[in-house]
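User: Before I run my own analysis I want an independent prediction to cross-check against. Here's the chain; please return only the C-alpha cells and, at the end, one sentence I can use as a sanity check.
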Amino acid sequence: MKDTVEPYITDDGRTIGGVLMDMRNITLRFGGVEAIKDISFDIREGEIRAIIGPNGAGKSSMLNVISGFYNPQEGEVWFRGEKRPPMKPYQVARLGIARTFQNIALFEGMTVLDNIMTGRLTHMKSGMFWQALWVGRAEAEEVENRARVERIIDFLEIQAIRKTPVGRLPYGLKKRVELARALAADPKLLLLDEPMAGMNVEEKEDMSRFILDVNDEFGTTIALIEHDMGVVMDLSDRVVVMDYGRKIGDGTPDEVRGNQEVIDAYLGVAHD
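Assistant: C-alpha cells:
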C-alpha cells in the first residue's frame, strides 16, 4: 500500500484514487462518556476500508457519524473535498452515502422488489401527485428506476425471490436484499455495518464475493465494520483499528496484523 494520495493501480488491477472522505480529529460524547476520542483517518476512492475493534470500541458510533445519525462535538467531516456541515441522515444520503445496518432494517411485509425500490427515493424528482397519475416525467422516472433495480437484482442473483415478501426470507437472503437496497441509491460511498453477522460459512463466502464485485464492477468505495478477521484481511485494502474510542492502528492488513497494540486489544492482555 502506498502512502501517497496520488491514484494508483492495485496488484489486482483496481484503481485507488484520492481521498473521498476525511475524518479529522473526531470526538463524540454521550453525556460524560467519550465514544470516540480524537480520531482521524481517511477513505480513498475505490478502496475497501475496514473499521475493526473489540465490542464497545466505538465502531458503530463512527459509522453513525459518517452517515449523519450523530454529529460529533469536535472535529471535521470532509467529503469529496468539501467540509460537511452538520446534517441529517437523509441529507447525507443525497450526497451519495448509503448504508446497511447491523440489525436488518427492511420492510418485512413488502416484496424484495419493493424494498429495493425504496433505495431509489433520493433519485425521484417528481411529486406524489404526478407519481399517482404515472404520466410524463413520473412515468419515465419510474421506468428508469425500475431498470436500475432490475440490474441490481440480476447482479446479486436474487431474481427468484424478487416478488417474495421479505418476511418469508431466510436471514442470509435478507442481508443480500439490504445490500441491494443500499446499492439502488448509486452511492459514492457504501457503508456496511457487520455484513457477515449471523451468517454461516457459505453465506459469508457469497457476501464476500458480492462485496468484491460491487467494488470492482461498480467502482463503489466501501467502508465496512466486521468482526470476522479472516474476511477483513481478505477483503480490505486498509484497516483502521479502534479500542475504547481510540485509534490504535491504521494501515494495510499485514501492518495491522503485526501491530502489538492491536494484538493486545483483541487478546485482552497487557504488553510490557
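Sanity check: The chain has two domains: 1-96+187-272, 108-184.
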